[in-house]
Design goal:
Elements (H helix, E strand, L loop, with lengths): L9 H7 L3 E3 L6 E3 L1 H5 L14 E2 L3 E9 L3 E8 L4 E8 L7 H15 L9 E7 L6 E7 L3 E3 H8 L4 H20 L2 E2 L8 E4 L7 E3 L6 E2 L12 E5 L5 H5 L5 H17 L9 H10 L14 H10 L11 H16 L6 H7 L24 H8 L3 H4 L10 E5 L29 H4 L29 H26 L1 E3 L8 H10 L3 E4 L13 E5 L5 E3 L3 E6 L6 E2 L8 H10 L3 E8 L9 E5 L5 E2 L4 E7 L4 E4 L7 H10 L3 E9 L8 E5 L3 E4 L3 E9 L2 E3 L8 H10 L3 E6 L9 E5 L5 E3 L3 E6 L1
Parallel strand pairs: 17-20, 22-25, 27-30, 32-35
Antiparallel strand pairs: 1-2, 3-4, 4-5, 5-6, 6-8, 7-8, 9-11, 10-13, 11-12, 14-15, 16-19, 18-20, 21-24, 23-25, 26-29, 28-30, 31-34, 33-35
Helix pairs in contact: 5-7, 5-10, 7-9, 9-10, 9-11
């Protein structure tokens, strides 16, 4: 794998950067192999390299190029950090559709402040070179992708697979709470930072993201389906409708791939893979790896149910199920029938393989015959450009269905039928071909001459015409009644309170019903934020309109987590729709090791859903290393130890001829580690023992010497001035009454 400056995988940028070209027929963006071959980074002569965008971002090497934009490694000169800058190609800024999509990508990603989402820092338009240069500044994350991990490790144990998927689902949950769907979840869009940068898993490329609302729940406008075909939910193929459950389906397919090392549906072309997503369930992973527990199978089945009503409503619910399965794996359960039964879809899929009909609550199934015809058409004519890889983000253009009048589908094996034709109508005309041009694959048909005779005019023709007119009129009247007249247009009641909305609907001959309330960032609590049917929609006379009332701002208080373990705290945060940010360790004398000391923000702080909460965890009591104070000042030792909140005690005081008074003779313990509040004991020196010099004047030298040596002194003698040789002590040094250390030398002066 080639790596750009700083360690970022160039291959990753190639994967996440959409490569598009303009479709002359409709101006739509579709996949282009030619652009893929031209996407080699660092092309020579790139005028962007070296430029200073917005007087801030110094452009470096190009790491990827697509049909819409190129990505460069750059330096933020203001903050002195490395960033990734995505620059729209020159000229595309003049196309409002491209420019709006580019800016929409910036705004969509910037709305997500989550540790597992690649951050967007800035977006701007630089005109320093005389033309508009639209750019997007993103987080620069050195690392590799989940696809690389799948290649190296898959199939992998369920615990490893769920550990890799959990941050991805957490990021999607934050997006869904913010009203965004990703629409292109796949391993190539999951970046894993290298160990030097923390190894954090991040979801990238929210360029296809779109806000979810009652009016914009399609994957694209204008009949274009965008996404990666190996991970497309069935409803995206059928009618192009996307909501959070489409991301859930894609996450379930990724989990299957992590567990088995292969994709659940394969095909020779993207259209065949899409067909299998519609008509075939994702297999149980245990069919490939029998050691996988039944509840892991159930989690995959729940997330990838073809009936989207059976899937988790969004990634937040899926995250909850994933945590339950992780807990079962941590407990070492080989099987948990109760958990498996709870996770498995409650009903059969809305439509079975190829033959079954959809349920009343699911969209019309994909037309298999139309799919078969589509696979026979040149891909350039069908709006699909395929480079052979089902993983590539693909755009499938949804052409309007041809009129069904006078149209029949004839099986290939059916025998040719002879149809009666009016006189004078040739077979070529009846098949829609030009006169004289034979139908494809058939020889020209020779029409035998028909003999005619005069006959009496019949009344059956006019009667048949009259009956046909009456039938057409009846059908038209029925269509008018059943399709229009018995329906009422839903009045607009958005922004009203429940009573006013109900009154407005009653005036229109409709009934109001309160539905499930929802949070809103811009509509006050108690007011209507949506109706079903929506304003202007059709509803039967006297029918019911469901009102969705606002709960106001969705906010959650940081729970009190003190004393809980890190796992318990994370579960508590997930239960309150808050995200776990990071944990740091601190020494604590009161909180046991591994438990929460405090949170940041502190408990009781009100936050938006998905906001990060950091934990401060206890590392236990702080160990204190002590040194040996023997022979050093006791006062200094006491001051130092008490400053570290250790207790100091004096075990005793002793005379010492070698240790000065006030110094430490011994301590207990002498070395090692203690904790705050522990005690260190000392024996303090009183200095040498003092003895009073006795009176020895006029004593004989022998008697004086015996007395002094008996008191522990050393005796020396000298002759005094005027020595007479009598042998008596005239004086001593030190003299009588002085206190001197035991063992000192006493000098006797003899006369």
């Amino acid at each position: 794998m080639s790596v750009g400056a700083g360690g970022t995988s160039v291959e990753w940028w190639r994967r996440i950067l959409p490569r598009h070209h303009s479709d002359p027929a409709g101006g739509r963006a579709v996949e282009s192999p030619e652009h893929a071959r031209a996407a080699a980074p660092g092309a020579a002569g790139d005028p962007m390299i070296g430029r200073l965008l917005d007087r801030r971002y110094r452009i470096g090497a190009r790491v990827a190029r697509g049909g819409m934009a190129s990505v460069y490694e750059a330096t933020d000169t203001r903050l002195d950090r490395t960033v990734a800058v995505k620059v729209m190609h020159p000229g595309l800024g003049d196309d409002n559709e491209f420019a709006e999509r580019f800016v929409r990508e910036a705004r969509a990603a910037a709305r997500l402040n989550h540790p597992h989402v690649v951050g967007v820092y800035d977006q701007g338009d630089d005109t320093s070179d005389g033309q508009d240069t639209v750019f997007l500044v993103m987080e620069y994350v050195p690392g590799h992708t989940l696809r690389d991990v799948i290649r190296k490790e898959a199939p992998m144990p369920p615990s490893r697979a769920l550990a890799l998927l959990e941050p991805v689902v957490s990021a999607l949950a934050a997006a869904h709470r913010a009203g965004l769907i990703h629409r292109d979840v796949k391993p190539e869009n999951v970046l894993i930072a290298d160990e030097a940068h923390g190894g954090r898993i991040k979801v990238a490329d929210f360029g296809l993201a779109k806000a979810v609302s009652a009016d914009t729940q399609h994957t694209a406008t204008g009949g274009v389906l965008i996404g990666t075909v190996s991970y497309l939910a069935p409803e995206l193929v059928i009618d192009g409708r996307a909501d959070a459950r489409a991301d859930v389906y894609a996450a379930g397919v990724v989990l299957y791939e992590l567990l088995t090392g292969s994709k659940p549906h394969e095909g020779e072309s993207p259209i065949q893979v899409a067909y299998r997503h519609v008509h075939h369930d994702v297999p149980m992973p245990s069919a490939v790896r029998p050691d996988i527990p039944d509840y892991v199978d159930a989690l995959v089945a729940r997330a990838t149910s073809r009936d989207r009503g059976q899937r988790p409503a969004d990634a937040t619910v899926l995250l909850h199920h994933l945590h339950r399965v992780e807990q079962a794996l941590r407990e070492g359960l080989d099987s948990d029938p109760e958990l498996a039964a709870d996770l498995l879809p409650r009903r059969a899929p809305a439509y079975d393989d190829d033959t079954a009909q959809p349920s009343d609550t699911t969209p019309e199934p994909f037309d298999a015959s139309a799919l078969a015809l589509l696979t026979e058409v040149d891909p350039r004519d069908s709006g699909l450009v395929d480079d052979g890889s089902p993983d590539r983000t693909t755009a499938l253009e949804r052409h309007p269905a041809p009129p069904t009048v006078a149209t029949a589908v004839v099986p290939r094996t059916a025998a040719p039928a002879t149809a009666a034709m009016p006189v004078g109508t040739s077979p070529a005309t009846s098949t829609g071909l030009a006169p004289g041009r034979p139908a494809s694959g058939r020889a020209p048909t020779k029409v035998a001459p028909v003999a005619t005779t005069a006959r009496r005019r019949s009344l059956r023709g006019p009667v048949a015409l009259l009956l046909a007119l009456l039938l057409v009129g009846g059908i038209a009247l029925g269509a008018w009644w059943f399709g229009w007249e018995r329906y009422t247009t839903t009045p607009g009641v958005l922004g009203m309170d429940e009573a006013a909305a109900a009154s407005e609907l009653e005036d229109a001959g409709l009934e109001a019903e309160a539905g499930e309330p929802a949070y809103s960032e811009n509509v006050e609590a108690g007011l209507v934020i949506a109706t079903d049917p929506g304003p202007g929609g059709k509803v039967l006379d006297g029918g019911t309109v469901t009102l969705t009332l606002s709960l106001g701002l969705e906010r959650y208080d940081v729970p009190a987590l003190e004393g809980q373990t890190e796992d318990q705290a994370q579960d508590a945060l997930a239960a309150t729709n808050l995200a776990f940010g990071a944990s740091t360790g601190r020494w604590s004398e009161t909180v046991p090791e591994g438990q929460v000391i405090r949170t940041s923000p502190k408990a009781g702080t009100t936050l938006k859903p998905g906001a990060s909460v950091d934990l401060v965890l206890s590392r236990g009591r702080k160990p204190l290393t002590i040194k040996d104070w023997t022979g050093k000042s006791f006062d200094d030792a006491q001051s130092a130890l008490e400053g570290r909140r250790l207790e100091v005690s004096v075990a005793g005081e002793e005379y010492s001829d070698t240790v000065a008074e006030g110094d430490v003779i011994s301590q207990d313990p002498t070395t090692g580690t203690l904790f705050r509040g522990d005690t260190v004991s000392f024996v303090v020196s009183l200095g040498p023992e003092l003895v009073e010099v006795p009176r020895v004047r006029a004593m004989g030298v022998d008697a004086a010497t015996e007395l002094l040596e008996g008191l522990g002194f050393t005796v020396e003698t000298e002759e005094a001035d005027g020595y007479l040789g009598l042998g008596f002590v005239f004086s001593s040094d030190p003299g009588q009454g002085e206190e001197v250390p035991k063992g000192s030398t006493i000098t006797l002066f003899l006369i």
